[in-house]
Write a structure and sequence with these properties.
The protein has 396 residues and is α+β, with helices and mostly antiparallel strands. It is 34% helix and 17% strand. It has a six-stranded mixed sheet. 24% of the residues are buried.
Length: 396
């Protein structure tokens, strides 16, 4: 028989071994289970409810596994031995009915949660029991994922920031999110769920922060060498604090025009916080449609390409429309792959009633020959362009 002192020593040794593990657990960040935004809180509730509901089956199964192994062990001669038993209607009902009921409940809450927590769905409340009123104006924030930093544009205030953003508490936020070259994922765990940022595409996220504080934002999708440093700070502040933050941004280092954006877009790591006191009004649209370069002002933007495609496209020649997009995606971040520099510069429309009169000024001769494509309500080519010049593309 071991002595009492040796038993105590073994218990103390096991406790000492467990202390380092407890220290590691103390460093865990439980922000997902303790968020500060209403959308993230609803997502947390959905996660907890689903987990508890599944444990209703998991815990009894684990307990019964241990019980059966002990009850029907070989040394237990009192256990019933029925080698020919193969069916019990009561057991079958329990085994199948309980999981089926749980699946039905999970399916119901998943369906409702998918619609109510759709990131594209405008907010109907800022917190439980506090609906969004018509007087509340959402804050618009345009987000661009760059290599390897985050750009935030506030179109209402005409300012921008890098790796830092702020928003008033209890004010709905409408995020419009895109990327410059590589897919990322925009994620503020305390605010709402993650959503992808993709080049040439726009995703949306509606969210609200309900408690003041400083929160961490990350990219949750690997995007290359500088991914680990692609973090930003999200400040939840009152209206006075937000006004101060906007004032600080307006004292930034300069304007964010197209040339400044192209310099910022170049891959860089661990970029410090930066502010811009002015933003070109059409910059976000140009970023989204991959036509930022000021040295190519006549480069066809992607939304114009899509408008042409909506009217039937340019046939085989339209393949060239994709090439400049790939050039922007690869060449701007220094990749050796991708196509040679090339861009679609313009298009011609089928003359519409009165359209030729607009071309007469400065055009020595008009041709009755018409182009093979009509834009979807797009602007006419400049008068300096001859109607007979029907080429839709030129090398850049």
């Amino acid at each position: 028989m071991p002595s009492l002192s040796s038993v105590r020593l073994r218990k103390l040794a096991r406790l000492a071994m467990a202390l380092p593990l407890a220290g590691l657990l103390a460093g865990c960040n439980a922000v997902v289970l303790s968020p500060s935004g209403d959308i993230a809180a609803q997502q947390r509730d959905l996660l907890v409810f689903s987990t508890v509901l599944m444990l209703v089956i998991i815990i009894p199964v684990m307990a019964l596994t241990v019980l059966f192994a002990w009850r029907y062990r070989q040394s237990n001669k009192t256990a019933r031995y029925e080698p020919d038993w193969d069916h019990s209607t009561q057991l079958e009902l329990v085994i199948w009915a309980a999981p089926l009921l749980i699946i039905i409940i999970l399916g119901a809450i998943t369906w409702t949660g998918t619609h109510l927590l759709d990131p594209y769905r405008p907010l109907e409340r800022v917190a439980a029991g506090r609906p969004v009123t018509k007087e509340v104006k959402p804050l618009d924030v345009q987000v661009v994922a760059l290599d390897w930093k985050w750009l935030f544009i506030y179109p209402e205030y005409g300012v921008a920031s890098v790796n830092e953003m702020a928003a008033p508490v209890d004010r709905p936020i409408n995020f419009k999110i895109t990327a410059s070259a590589v897919m990322n994922s925009f994620y503020v765990p305390a605010l709402a769920g993650m959503i992808y940022a993709m080049p040439g595409m726009e995703t949306k996220l509606h969210a609200v922060i309900n408690a003041p504080g400083e929160y961490e934002g990350i990219s949750s999708n690997y995007s290359g060498a500088g991914f680990s440093g692609m973090r930003f700070r999200f400040h939840g502040v009152d209206q006075a604090g937000f006004d101060q933050w906007i004032a600080k941004a307006r004292g930034g280092e300069g304007a964010l025009d197209r040339a400044a954006y192209l310099a910022l877009e170049k891959p860089s790591q661990n970029v410090p916080v930066r502010y811009y006191n002015a933003v070109a009004p059409d910059l976000y649209r140009a970023i989204l449609n991959m036509c930022v370069d000021p040295n190519k002002p006549d480069k066809m933007c992607m939304d114009k390409m899509m408008a042409i495609d909506a009217k039937g496209g340019l046939g085989k020649e339209g393949i060239n429309n994709v090439r400049p997009l790939l050039h922007d995606k690869y060449a701007r971040r220094g990749a050796v792959l991708g196509p040679d520099p090339y861009y679609v510069s313009d298009y011609c429309e089928v003359p519409r009633p009165g359209a030729l009169d607009a071309w007469k000024s400065g055009v020595p001769a008009l041709s009755s020959r018409s182009a093979g494509i009509a834009g979807a309500g797009l602007s006419l080519p400049p008068a300096s362009r001859q109607p007979t010049q029907l080429s839709a593309a030129q090398p850049g």
